[in-house]
Design goal:
This protein is an alpha+beta fold and about 600 residues long. The protein is built from 19 helices and 24 strands. It has an 8-stranded mixed β-sheet with strand order 5-4-3-6-2-1-7-8. The radius of gyration is 30 Å and the shape is elongated. The structure holds adenosine-5'-diphosphate (ADP) and magnesium ion. Magnesium ion binds next to helix 2.
Amino acid sequence: MADIIQLLPDNVANQIAAGEVIQRPASVVKELMENAIDAGSTQIDLVIKDAGKTLIQVTDNGGGMTYTDARMCFERHATSKIKSADQLFQLTTKGFRGEALASIASIAHVDLKTKMPDEDLGTQLHIEGSNVTEHEPCACPDGTSIQVKNLFFNVPARRNFLKSDQVETKHIVEEFLRVAMPHNDITFSMHHNGDEVYFLPAGNRKQRLISIFGKQYDERLVPVDEETTIVKLSGYVGKPDKAKKTRGEQYFFVNNRFIKSPYLNHAINNAYSELISKDHFPSYFLFMEVDPQSIDVNIHPTKTEVKFEEEKSIYAILQSAVRNSLGKFNVMPTLDFNQEATFSEFIDPNRPVVEPEIKIDTTYNPFEKEKQAKLNNGGSSIRHAERSTFPSNPSTNTQNWESLHEVTRSSGVNSEQTVETDLNQSEQRKMFQISDKYIFTSIKSGYVVIDQYRAHYRILYDAFIQQIEHRNGESQGLIFPETVELSKTDFKLLNAIEDELKILGFAYQKEDYTINITAKPSSLDEVPSADIIAQLLDNFKMNADNNNVSPKETIARSLASGTAIRKGKKLNPQEISDLVDRLFACEDSQYAPNGKKIIINFTFEDIEKQFN
Ligand code: ADP
Ligand code: MG
């Protein structure tokens, strides 16, 4: 019988390797930038077109390559970085597998220009699908420039599975930052479709973070420094009151290489425990230096996972160093731990506590349609209960009870029982709050439990949506304009939602990446603009991958979830009945905008069954 085993042709082997190493345009960006760093560059420029689908170009001013190396570098297992297996454990460079360029050249059209500083001429080379079609001397600047065009041109399955430009760009930006962040002594730039996205001049570590994230980070960061025999730790952590709702700003680097480590992340979370609420994430930018021999970076093809020899000690050192820093810089908890995340967390902790002022509207008449409409239209009395206007006559809201029944019936819950139920006047005031979280109320057919936060979230969300749709947001001018400094990307994001923000009542002037807010929605007048904007942008980033949520919805969700009364907030009887009334005036009173249940219904039948 004939032998059937053959060696795979190189181009096929390369394509298979590419499947592991190059998952998307961002992977190319990472590999090219890492090579540029290993080449000793002091300036690295990234240019992309169409989220890297059309072009990814990395230009450096590093050591360049010889005529022969320019050809060799595209061979599989071609590397200048290790010569023997034991060097694998003493890595000081980023590369070592020698398969990135070979992989890239097997699935794209690649142009390379490279020149060593002490040579007169450089080399240019064109390679596509692993075939070299041009290789000749040329005049070019010192260093190396690689253009990768039409990525995955010969792997349609891969190409078709790429996400939207927005998503792919987000991945590229993330890779770019992961490489640029620890290399603060190198100048980096990034351009996308002709626009400069980042320009990061060489500087110290803090300057690098500030040029990435914006000037406002200057006062948000707390330094961390610790040197032990196992690890030298440096970097910054974010102040707890600036913690974000997205996991985004969490960076660990080991020997200047970005790593993912759920285990070490846990150490940081522990250091912050009791300082931030559960649904918030601390920001951190931590750089660890360890003996290259004590880690194994070879366990993952894209090298974001690292195995430490002394993992447990590093965990303990991290946790205590971060705790120390938070203590030393007197970052005290400013939060109410019973509450979910709220804008109030961002409010200046030094602001004096003001006695709540409760205004009572003695002329309130719940049957007056206009007033009711106003209440339902976001003129929330509960949003800031401290300064609210509550109806004074709680005893005569029968109409709303009728609507409660109507709404309950139309949404098909307990329909049979409810339809038959006549209102029992004596029962209408049996509403009370349990554990400052839920509203419990009986109806003739049983009882309902309402989640107060979700109920208010729904009410406010509907109001904001209505304001955007009817273009009738209420604006309030600010005596002292509020200034918000943004990073370049955040600034662009904000521009994309400018229309909606204006409709809601924001007015602002732009200057560089700073916005001066001169008016904002009147319902948000107690919340600092910087916090509203930060949360809005956060929510946009969280929803970036989700094409199902429109900007309008994202804005309404963000503002409503940020301002709704929290669990743990004690409500007085009038606030309770007001909340219930307004909830049942909403088209969908059963579910909050995030899809979570607002109401649980129990019938007497349910109760009886329980006693059987
Ligand atoms: P690795 O980085 O793992 O060695 P690569 O395929 O990424 O493998 O690169 C192969 C080789 O090509 C590198 O070892 C290096 O010698 C050379 N090389 C790649 N990019 C550059 C660059 N920008 N400047 C100088 N040499 C480079
Ligand atoms: Mg490499």
